[in-house]
Amino acid sequence: MNRFLLPLGLFVLLAVVLAIGIRHSPEKGIIASPLLGKPAPQFSLPSLNDPTREVRSADLKGHWYLFNVWGTWCGECRQEHETLLQVQRAGVVPIIGLDWKDDDAQAAAWLTQLGNPYQSVATDHSGREAIDWGVYGAPETFLVSPQGVVVYKHVGALTPDTWMREILPRVSGLSAGKS
Amino acid sequence: MMRRAALTVLLGVCLSLAAAAAWAVDPTELPDPTLQARYVALTHELRCMQCQNESLADSPVDLAADLRREVRNQLLAGKSDDEIRAWMTARYGDFILFRPRYSLRNAWLWGAPGVLLLIGVLVCWRIVRNRTTLLAADQEPLEEDGRS
After folding, report:
1. pLDDT tens by residue, A123-150
2. CB B63 within 8 A of CB B51
3. Is the dihedral of CA B68, B72, B74, B79 positive or negative?
4. Domain map (residue ranges) of chain B
5. How far apart are CA A69 and CA A130, in angstroms?
6. What is the CB neighbour count within 10 angstroms for residue B122?
7. The dihedral of CA A179, A118, A33, B75: what is its sign?
8. CA–CA gap between residue A167 and residue B101 (Å, rounded)
């Protein structure tokens, strides 16, 4: 009896450890952002429509905004574009785009062709800004609070479901509490 | 003899291809050999976030090239290895480190091999002890032997 008790105990222990591992394993390799709950990176970048103008994080203080990283080379960005347009039409929170390692002319053409959901689009030709946001693949979307804190991050194409479940409650709930 | 020569040639070709591939991914040469050594070490212990099982040094994707450029610039700017690691983890989290940090959260990770080794030693010790007692019992003269 005793002979089997120890191996059985070890087996159960191993099973529990592995079960916890599977439960908590990140979905599709999604990595938790260390930016959550921290101030969003400060930026000051050339605007896509008018390179003489700058899109600046300082100008965005005091309002909620979505920071959406995209590029015309990114297939999933095309998929999420319709959702972005819906979010823009809802008019609850403006979307700031970061055109990541892209060609300005192609990006402009993309927005004319598919519609422009962005309040403004900043360009990041070198990819340096995306690194500050810990971006590892487009599309990625960050929700930034009026205090300038990153509240939520979504990796991959934004869906109406994520918008309804994750983003809208955060924006409306917190702003309702404030007013 | 022929086979051996053929094998040598094949091995040579493979090695040169591997060397060429390594060169193609990252042709960086820093002016200072100590900086270059630190650069090579750092890019090997930082993970490429896009391909996840490759280091920055081995990965051909764009993001890895951008992060290598950061490592390079910061080394040239006189940053220490720890400062560069901290800069990376502030943006990408501990996940970017192939070598986990020594922290309370990672204690189980670093401690587990020692615990497993200890368990192994205990098991070995028990088995050996059981065997020696059995052996000792075996070598005692049997009662019947004494009587006959």
Report:
1. 999 999 999 999 998 899 999 999 999 9
2. no
3. positive
4. 25-99, 103-137
5. 8
6. 10
7. negative
8. 33
- B25 CA: distance to closest CA in chain A (Å): 18
Chain A environment of B95 (Cβ under 8 Å): 31
Determine if the peptide bond prior to B60 is cis (ω within 30°). Answer: no
Among B95, B63, B101, B61, residue whose Cα is nearest residue B81: B101
pLDDT in tens, B47-62: 998 887 899 999 989 9
Q: Which ipTM score applies to this complex?
A: 0.80
- Compute the nearest-CA separation of A9 from chain B (Å): 14
**Domains of chain A with CATH codes:** 34-178 (3.40.30.10)
Please state which architecture CATH assigns to domain B25-99.
Orthogonal Bundle (1.10)
Tallying the residues shown for chain A, one arrives at: 179
Starting from the edge strand earliest in sequence, which strands make up the sheet with A150-155, in order? Answer: A120-124, A95-100, A65-70, A140-144, A150-155
- Inter-chain touch B67–A137, beta carbons under 8 Å: no
Residues in chain B: 148
Cβ neighbours around A153 below 10 Å, total:
20
Nearest CA in chain A to B90: A34
Smallest CA–CA distance from A135 into chain B, residue: B92
Residue that the structure tokens 């959550």 belong to: A36
Instruction: State chain A's mean pLDDT as an integer.
Output: 90
3-state SS, residue A44: strand
CA distance B89 to B146: 77
Asked if A41 and A132 touch (Cβ cutoff 8 Å), the reply is yes
Q: What angle do CA A131, B73, B24 make, to 5 degrees?
A: 85
Q: Is the pTM of this model over 0.80?
A: no
Q: Please, are residues A102 and A128 in contact by the beta-carbon 8 Å criterion?
A: no
